[in-house]
Amino acid sequence: MEDRAATLPPTGVIRVCGIIGYIGTEEAAPLLLQSLKRLEYRGYDSAGIALIREGKLIRFRRAGKVRDLEEAVRTEEIHATIGIGHTRWATHGAPTDKNAHPHLDCSAKLAVIHNGIIENFLELRTRLAADGHTFASDTDTEVLAHLIEDRFDGDLLLAVRQAVLECSGAFAVAVLCEDVPDRIVVAKRGSPLVVGLGETGGFVSSDIPALLGKATDVQFLLDDELAEIRADRLRIVGLDGKEIHRPAHKVSIDPVSIQKGGYKHFMLKEIYEQPRSTAETIREKQTADGTSLVVPTCGAQVSSCDAAYLIACGTAYHAALVAEYLWEEHLPIPLHAVIASEFRSRRMHVTPKTLVVVVSQSGETIDTLMALRRAREGGARILALVNAERSAIDRESDATVYTRAGIEIGVAATKTFTAQIAALGLLGLALGQERGTVSREAVREELRQLTLLPGKITEALRLEPTILELAERLHRAKDVLFLARGVLFPVALEGALKLKEISYIHAEGYPAGEMKHGPIALIDEGTPVVMLVSGGVAREKILSNMEEVKARRGCVVAVTDVPDDPAIRRLADHVLPIPTCLGISLPIVFSIPLQLLAYHIAVCRGTDVDQPRNLAKTVTVE
Ligand code: AGP
């Protein structure tokens, strides 16, 4: 992988924000606003743009969502063909108008937007203030505007390069200056930045989705690189000022993939994409005849490793936990799924004989990235499992297994979760084959089962009308429990996370056997308890747990692949039947009704399903 040798950014808090910049022949204001909406998944508590109109720099910014900014900008009256835009997720400094980006220098001729944190900003701010600079915000970003102002002598690229040389921390920065109205200058360390060219001009963005349909050829900047973007060309330089040449990548993602396609929300569209996203993920990991596996495994490391860690956050952690259950069936070594932020703070034992698998949809989650670096210090080889190619985690790993879920825009992960389970399941089998603990026949049988998976997911999706009715009954609940055993326990955790994230209802996932050790106290008359019951996973035991819930007059929702079981019929208030599944398919198909339930409860409650409060799609904050 050509980018794996990227330099390592420093540690530190990195703010989640979206950056966009454009110079060309189109009207910049509507283009920037449209792109900011596509970047809103990165942060949505304030937004702003700066443009150069008739030789003068103008700025608009607002606390709130991009639609609030849009109301403040009369695009039809602003004729400008160059500009930068920013959407923010505040960690330092309240999400107010004055802290919204872009930030200006003293002369108000130069505007800066920034994703990251300038760790030495206090020291720089004190010095700049003593030199007479006036600060108008509480942000660290503003020091960049004043630093660049200090250095600027007609050459903007040089001034930005000198300014970032004085900064420690992480940044993706874009700078606009009315004295040089034919270019945007950008710099990167730590936070992602993509530059590109298209038919109508030059672009910069934090991520590809904002550039779809606009840029045709893009380059992912590496750390400590700067770029000068003009309407018809890009120039990339290092911190030493030396020019860097490398081939651009063609943008191959279909812009249709970032449209709602008739669905009310991206989340619902993404739920319905799962027959295809899981099939795509599986297709790539097998030979054309569908009988053997083709999965990168870090080779020699695997046959001799004596333990494996699966490291991830949030939903990806739940997929890692599913993998722990699936892998222990055939990998006779200790396996630990660990939350990335905990992995970093604990004394986890990592040696060159440890296999480390890092799971992340975005490939940019800072906790996961830092855990990866920590594991590398112990000498482990790192296998990544990501959805975003060329992301930081992809680049910094020794080998990568990709999920092929396509871009996921809904903040609540759905199709990437099931794709992660599919990919991790197959990776586990490939690891087992390399160690000689999984036979070719076992692989062939699992792959045969997986050919049935898209059809089974489609069948589970047909439950939507029933789930909609159920959501109408349950959406006023205060607490919801999700209980399961074995490999379905992490699916219960994920069901609870989905509900919390988008409906703001308190929900907990528990191993059903643990219920009597505490959570049973939450069960009161009518408390919804979603129980996952599979014919193949400790059915008798979970039926006893169902009795316990009913004895406390809880409201049992049974998601089950054995819906005709008389005990379930007797005990459950609501039954959601799903098709019978085995192996890797089982946790995937059980996830579908839980996603639909969370979605419809959230819609009933009127929440912002695709952009739930306080969350961001890519969490680059430690
Ligand atoms: C999922 O619904 C969440 N938004 C969140 O838990 C997410 O899975 C987590 O932040 C990890 O993200 P990653 O997969 O991009 O690393």
What keyword list fits this structure?
622 residues; alpha/beta; 8-stranded antiparallel β-sheet; 7-stranded antiparallel β-sheet; 20 helices; globular; binds 2-deoxy-2-amino glucitol-6-phosphate
Describe this structure in words.
The chain has 622 residues and is α/β, with parallel strands linked by helices. 35% of the residues lie in helices and 23% in strands. The chain has 20 helices and 25 strands. The strands form 4 sheets. The protein has an 8-stranded antiparallel β-sheet with strand order 3-2-4-1-10-9-11-15, covered by helices on one side. Strands 5-6-7-8-12-13-14 form a 7-stranded antiparallel β-sheet, with helices on one face. A 5-stranded parallel β-sheet has the order 17-16-18-19-20, sandwiched between helices. The chain is globular, with a radius of gyration of 25 Å. It starts with 16 loop residues before the first strand and ends in a 17-residue tail after the last helix. The model is unreliable at 1-15 (pLDDT under 50). 2-deoxy-2-amino glucitol-6-phosphate is lined by residues 313-316, 360-362, 365, 368, 411-413, 501, 615, 618-619.
